[in-house]
Amino acid sequence: MTVPPPLPNAEPPADPDVQAPPEAQPAPEAQPAPPAPPEAQHNYTCPNCGAQTAYAPGTTVLRCPTCGAEQAVTGGDGSIDEHSYDAWAALPPKPIATIGAQVVQCRNCGATTESDAFAGACQFCAGVLIPVTQPEGVIAPEAVVPFALEKRPANDAFVKWVRSRWFAPGALKKVGSTESIKGTYVPHWTYDAHTETDYTGQRGEHYWVTETYTVSDGKGGTRTETRQVQKTRWYPAAGHVARDFDDVLVLGTSRIAPELVAKAGPWPLPSAVPYAADYLAGYSALRYDVDPDSGLTSAKQQMAEVIEDDCKHDIGGDEQRVSSMDTGYAAIMFKLLLLPLWIASYVYAGKTFQVVVNANTGQVIGERPYSKLKIALAVIAGLIVAAAIITAIVLSKRHGH
User: Fold this and answer.
1) Residue percentage of the chain with pLDDT more than 70
2) What is the 8-class DSSP label of residue 126?
3) How far apart are CA 297 and CA 299, in angstroms?
4) Do 48 and 152 belong together in one domain?
5) Burial class (CB in 10 A: 0-12, 13-18, 19+), 354
6) CB-facing half-sphere around the CA of 93: CA atoms within 13 A
7) Mean pLDDT: which of 45-59, 174-188, 360-374 is highest?
8) Residues 378 and 244 reside in one and the same domain
9) Could you tell me the end-to-end alpha-carbon distance of the chain, in angstroms, rounded to an integer?
10) Which residues of 37-49 are buried (b: 16+ CB within 10 A; e: fewer)?
11) Average pLDDT over all residues of the chain
């Protein structure tokens, strides 16, 4: 039996067990949805061949590795802003260890995953992974120094470095595959501050005295001679110095040895541009795990070395000693900056070693193992050469030469 549809104006019969709804309230005015960030809108698929595009080092374009098609980098307009440290410190505590992973999404196939990396490649299609959510309390990058050195010359520099390690094990010479080196943006904090320092110390002034001493005359007797000896008089000193610091650089991750990154510099900080996700296409990017508080502590240590030199210059004299420094900091500003490195890691004898290549200058800095056998052979060879020289000298004296 077919049930006919209700009439247009007919009301359904009342159900005694169902209460009437309250009087309807006017719906609130609809709010427009916030616009999606540019990086979430950008698709990194080549419009010509469908391959994944990547940022081309030293340019302002995304380039397809298959057909060579190019697209201009979008985003990153405007200025590079810095944050007030005092304003940030006044916010509720944000222990970095409790910050959850962020959601990254592939711009090609749409797959999403949680990661503590800031960017990378999709494990399903090798597409570009870009963050679509940011954990609460995480500071977003303000600036980036783009890659300027392409992968092939970076790998060539790495291979040359490996082959130049004289006492490295022979197995290390085989390390050099282009797959072993990865382009990675490494997070750094930069700090600005105005400092005022009261110091105490000592000023040393040199003077000369004449000393008399005796030496053998070679005939069983002695003779008296004189010489000039430098002495130093120390005087108390105190004063006040001031200095403005700009862009004091502090590594923002514990995943790379700080000494490696420090030696890989200097960095062309004036070439930094406002952050845009397009610069990360084709590369990975680490999220910081050193918070701004810890970073500022490291920055103050760097500042203290410069301030101590200022104090010594202010003391004057021939030598200086700085006993104490009482430094006040004002107008502290900071920002998160991404710097480019080509990073290679290899395992030898169960230990992991890292090598980094500055993606702007090509400078290579790395850790390396030492071959005990090669060192022993070198020592033995040195002893043989030394013995041969000594033997030649002895024989020469015997024959009167």
Assistant:
1) 68
2) -
3) 5
4) no
5) middle
6) 3
7) 45-59
8) yes
9) 132
10) eebeebebbbeee
11) 78
Q: Which of 148, 152, 180 is nearest to 339 (CA)?
A: 148
Co-location of 365 and 242 in the same domain: yes
- What gap in Å lies between CA 257 and CA 236, rounded to an integer? 41
How many domains, the chain? 2
Based on the fold, state whether residues 113 and 248 are members of the same structural domain. Answer: no
Angle at CA of residue 67, ends 65 and 71, nearest 5° = 75
Same domain, 385 and 293: yes
pLDDT digits (tens, 9 = 90+) for 312-356: 999 999 999 999 999 999 999 999 999 999 988 776 667 777 888
What pLDDT score does 21 carry? 44
The confidence score (pLDDT) of residue 382 equals 72
How much is the pTM?
0.72
Whether the CB-CB separation of 62 and 45 falls below 8 Å is answered with: no
Task: Classify residue 162: in a domain, yes or no.
Answer: yes
Residues 53 and 95 in one domain: no
Q: What pLDDT does 186 receive?
A: 92
More confident residue, 44 or 271: 271
- Structure tokens given for 170: 């022979």
CA dist., res. 152 & res. 169, Å (int): 24
Contact between 287 and 338 under an 8 Å Cβ cutoff? The reply is no
- How far apart CA 120 and CA 282 sit, in angstroms, is 7
* Cα distance between residue 155 and residue 151, in whole Å: 6
pLDDT tier, 373 (very low <50, low <70, confident <90, very high otherwise): low
**Distance separating alpha carbons of residues 114 and 133, to the nearest angstrom:** 10
Rg (alpha carbons) of the chain, rounded to whole number: 34
Q: 177 to each of 182, 352, 384, how far by Cα in Å?
A: 11, 16, 38
Residue 307 lies in a domain: yes
> Same structural domain for residues 121 and 194?
no
The confidence score (pLDDT) of residue 136 equals: 62
3-state secondary structure of 92: coil
CA atoms of 374 and 380, how far apart (whole Å):
10
CA distance 267 to 250: 12
Q: Distance between CA 181 and CA 347 in Å, rounded?
A: 13
3, part of any domain: no
In a domain, 318, yes or no: yes
If asked whether residues 372 and 242 sit together in one domain, one would say yes
**Residue range(s) defining the domain that contains residue 131:** 37-74+101-135
Torsion of CA 215, 221, 224, 227, to 10 degrees: -10
